[in-house]
Amino acid sequence: MNDGGEAAQGSRRISAHAVCTAIRDDIVSGVFPPGSRLIEELLARRYGVSRVPVREALRTLASEGFVTTRRHAGACVAEPTEQEAADLLDVRALLEPLGAARAAQRRTEAHLKVLRGLVRLGQERARAGRTGELRPLGDWFDETMAQASGSPSLATLLTQLRRKIAWVYVAEPPARPLEAWEACGALVDAVARGDAERARALAAARADRGAGEFRTRRAQVARQVRPPKQSVNTAIARS
Length: 239
Hints:
mainly alpha, two-stranded antiparallel ribbon, 4 strands
């Protein structure tokens, strides 16, 4: 009985996590615009699951700030204010330098190998003018740098912060992409040397320059949400 109960509970946790990822992705991409209602029954039908994991997912998304609960309206997509949007970049400017300093003290050779490989790819793409490929590489770079900090809590905060920024802001490509990736290379060199203060300063300068690449998303036009052809199991396979 216990083994069966634990298995069922584990399955429910996985399902709730997958549904949470799917709903969050739909919020960030604008499928569910700010202020729109999130009805458990419709969400369960959309993702091909029961209402139980949907309810758990909405609680998680509320704790992350993507969802709010309104009286007489239930769960709705949050509507960040201009001040809240500005605060996201301010928090980023504080946390990313901290993460870089920690990475200089705690990184592994595996982290350095990935970071150097991403810098090399970024510089190659920038020289070739393939700017459309740079943003995913930059996200991967930031994620790896956060993991290199050796602090799971800090890495989680940075991951959540990047999701919120992607939701609230549109990221413009850097005016000088090669210079941006050269700055990434200098940051990796400081991390490799174990120079925490240099890494902190370079990460702060990078965050300061990068802030100019973000513009706030304007009011989004609500569009009808159609049930997808594939269930959330497909989303799990992609994630």
